[in-house]
Amino acid sequence: MARRHPRTGLSDTALEAERVHVDLLRQAGVTRRAELASSMTESTLARCMRGIQQANPGMSDIDVKLRFVEICYGKDLARRVKAYLGEKLHVEQP
User: Fold this and answer.
1) Which residues contact 13 (CB under 8 A, 6 or more apart)?
2) Which of 60, 61, 69, 94 has its CA at a distance of 20 to 30 angstroms from the CA of residue 10?
3) Residue 5 — φ and ψ, nearest 5°?
């Protein structure tokens, strides 16, 4: 069974490395921590989108995004977003 660290619950990080990481995060200002969180979120979203694209070759960008919404938030919201976008695109086109 994997050993879990008491503070973070990580099992694949050496305890000393975890301590250094936590100390560096503590030393970073609020702005830097927010930048790191934003960067990790952006990377995660990009990887999710690439995974959906790889699993569904030929799917349009908008359909990839709608599939992401469906996976993360449910079919009902994805359907409502698709309907909203369809109405918005229909109204805004000359």
Assistant:
1) 5, 21
2) 69
3) -80, 140
Is 14 in contact with 21 (CB distance < 8 Å)? Answer: no
b/e 51-64 (16+ beta carbons within 10 angstroms → b): ebbeeeeeeeeeeb
**Residue 2 vs residues 6, 10, 15, 62, 81: alpha-carbon distances, Å:** 13, 9, 13, 40, 41
pLDDT digits (tens, 9 = 90+) for 12-63: 778 888 888 889 989 999 999 999 999 999 999 999 999 999 999 999 999 9
